[in-house]
Amino acid sequence: MSSPTGRQVLLSSPEKDLKGEDYDLAAKEATGLNSPSEDGAPALILTPAADRAIVWKFDLRILPVLAVMYLFNSLDKSNLGNAKTAGLEKTLGLVGNQYNIILSVFFVPYVLTAPFLGILGKKLGPNRVLPAMMFTFGCFTLLVTAVKNFSGLLAIRWFLGMSESAFFPLVIYYLTTFYRRGELARRLALFYAAQSIASAFSGLLAFGVFQITTGSLADWRYLFVIEGSCTVTFSAFAFWYLPQSASHASFLSEEQKELAYYRMQTDSSSIVNEKFNLRDSLTIFKHPTSWLILGIEICLGVPLQSVQLFLPQIISRLGYDTVKTNLYTVAPNVSGAVMLLVLAFASDLTRLRFPFVAAGFLFTFIGFVIYAAIDVENQLQVAYFASFMMTWGTSAPSVLLDVWYNNNIAHEGRRVLLTSIAVPLANLMGVVSSNIFLNQDAPKYIPALATTAAFGGTGLILTLLLGAFMVTDNKRRDAKQGKVDLRTVSTEELRDGPASERFRWFY
Question: How many angstroms from the chain centroid is the CA of residue 384?
Answer without folding.
Answer: 26
